[in-house]
Amino acid sequence: MLKFLLDEHISPVVARESASKCRGLTIIAFKDWRSGTFLGADDRAILTEAKKDGLTLVTYDQKTIRPLLKEWAEQETEHAGVVFVDHKTIAPQDFGGLVQALSDLWKKERRAAWESRVVFLQKL
Predict the structure, then answer these.
(1) What is the DSSP letter of 8?
(2) Which of 99, 105, 107, 103 is nearest to 117 (CA)?
């Protein structure tokens, strides 16, 4: 089942609002994941540990994550999926838009295989 981990730059409000608006959806705020142990950690460590927990990372960070995913694809290193959000599509401060888009994605794709999957979140 698809579960999301918000990166540390996405407000925990998104996780709280999502849980109340979409029954069954699991979204974890980064600061709450493993008691904040990975705050400021390297992307490799975050993606490796998120995979262990079956968590798909939701991030606006295309600058560092995309090259890492390319490298991992070439090395056949697996991850639990990444959902990229573009600030031009959904602004970081548009909590409602992000909650709605993640809820819609989860409803459509919650049973799909997410291992090493990468998607760009769309606003409906």
Answers:
(1) T
(2) 105
pTM: 0.95
What percent of the chain has a predicted confidence (pLDDT) above 90? Answer: 91
Tokens matching residue 50: 């998120």
* Domain with 91 in it: 3-120
Q: What angle do CA 33, 90, 94 make, to 5 degrees?
A: 70
How many domains does one find in the chain?
A: 1
Tens of pLDDT, residues 80-114: 999 999 999 999 999 999 999 999 999 999 999 99
Burial label, 15 (beta-carbon count in 10 A; 0-12, 13-18, 19+): buried
Nearest to 120 by CA among 83, 81, 92, 65: 83
Q: Compute the average pLDDT of residues 37-51.
A: 95
Largest CA distance in the chain: 39
Q: How much is the average pLDDT of 29-37?
A: 94
